[in-house]
Design brief:
235 residues; alpha+beta; Alpha-Beta Plaits; 2 domains; 4-stranded antiparallel sheet; two-stranded antiparallel ribbon; 8 helices; 6 strands; elongated
Amino acid sequence: MEYLAHILESSEVTWETSLVRFLISFLLGTLIGVEREKHNQPAGLRTHILISIGATMVMLISIYIPQTFPQFQNGDPGRIAAQVVSGIGFLGAGAILKFGANVKGLTTAASIWAMAAIGLAVGAGMYSISLIGVAVVLFALTAMDLFEKRVFKERTLRKIELTVKKKYSNLELTKTVFKKFDVKITSTGFDRNINEATDKVTFLVGVTRHLDVHKLVDSLEELPGTVSVTVEIIP
């Protein structure tokens, strides 16, 4: 135990300290990676492990250079590790995907960035901070996810297109119907052709999973001047 405590407390980069830090980095990356893998995210178990180990290695190099090469002691060894923060942005951007009007992967991109920071902390021998960081990240990814689902209504996007006669283009009546069915308007588009007798009004809306689409369409069709109603699911 004394030998292990000595390795954990040592500030020098040796093969023993490097091995211990890589193992800790591997375990912490696994914890967060498993959570992301369960949610079928593009950046899952292996990605988070590699990010954590890579960040740890870069930090070890930053510490090792001034220890081994005295001529570089006047430089800034932290510049090497600092590149991880900016470089990880490429992976984060790759995890963010856009499907129609939906954007997915922001949470995974944030977890990638956080995993890199945790890996750097492990490489610097800041084990307590690393463990606290992983605990907070896991809490945010699991407990807060359950909290959001309970407190905030989960909504999916729909595109609703109304074709109405020009003299009946009253958006307030439409908004009243949306409010009745707890439909949240995200954006509104208006298309008018002077050669036609109708206008097209397009709404991008957020709806709850319990919405009765047929009743919503029936209510919209009952509005004065409504010619047709089209509802499209946004993937």
